[in-house]
Design goal:
The protein is an alpha/beta fold and about 180 residues long. It has a single domain, classed as Rossmann fold, CATH 3.40.50. Helix content is about 25%, strand content about 30%. It is built from three helices and nine strands; from the N terminus they run βαβαβββαββββ. Strands 4-3-2-5-6-7 form a six-stranded mixed β-sheet, with helices on both faces. The chain has a three-stranded antiparallel β-sheet with strand order 1-9-8. A hairpin with an 8-residue loop joins strand 3 and strand 4. Helix 1 crosses helix 2. The longest helix is centred in the first third of the chain and has 18 residues. It is globular and about 50 Å long. The relative contact order is 0.21.
């Protein structure tokens, strides 16, 4: 498979992505067996991963969504909730579903915000973990792939709203687009 113009190479094929999501979903299904699991995804990027993950999880579950937006001078982690959850999460088992955990600032903010709502448990599942850029340590419970410090697209990750729909993860060069 050849990557489209602007994409340097395919990092993980669609088959690799699907297989790893199934493996992580099996781990989650086993851990939360008999419990009331709710997946919470951050719009827009995590929607693709959430959908694939939810379909592969073999226990009943609920889903909800948050949307965040940056504000201020663009300092890392300066975000606010633009769309809040539709339902309370008190006394529920919550798994925050992320497309990518990068510096950790946004994830820390989301964890603090959700923890303040008194869930029974709170974990993180991410498609991609870019630990090379981590500034704030956050406890990632489930990760599909660890990636190098490169700009990636696909499976929900975008460049100027493009490439989200790719079924694979690709390294791209924004200067070539």
């Amino acid at each position: 498979m050849t990557a489209p113009p602007g994409l340097e190479r395919i990092l993980f094929t669609e088959e690799q992505v699907n297989q790893r999501i199934k493996e992580v979903a099996a781990e989650i299904s086993a851990k939360y067996q008999g419990r009331d699991l709710k997946l919470i995804a951050v719009l827009k990027g995590a929607v693709f991963f959430l959908t694939a993950l939810a379909r592969a999880i073999e226990i009943p579950l609920k889903i909800d969504f948050l949307a965040i937006s940056s504000f201020g001078s663009g300092a890392p982690g300066m975000v606010r909730i633009a769309k809040d959850l539709d339902h309370p999460i008190q006394d529920e088992d919550i798994l925050l579903v992320e497309d990518i955990v990068d510096t950790g600032f946004t994830t820390r903010y989301l964890l603090q915000t959700l923890a303040g709502r008194e869930p029974r448990s709170l974990g993180i599942c991410t498609l991609l973990d870019r630990t090379a850029r981590r500034i704030v340590q956050v406890p990632v419970d489930y990760r599909c792939f660890e990636i190098p410090d490169r700009f990636v697209v696909g499976c929900g990750l975008d460049f100027q709203q493009r490439y989200r729909n790719l079924g694979y993860i690709a390294v791209m060069d924004p200067e070539k687009c």
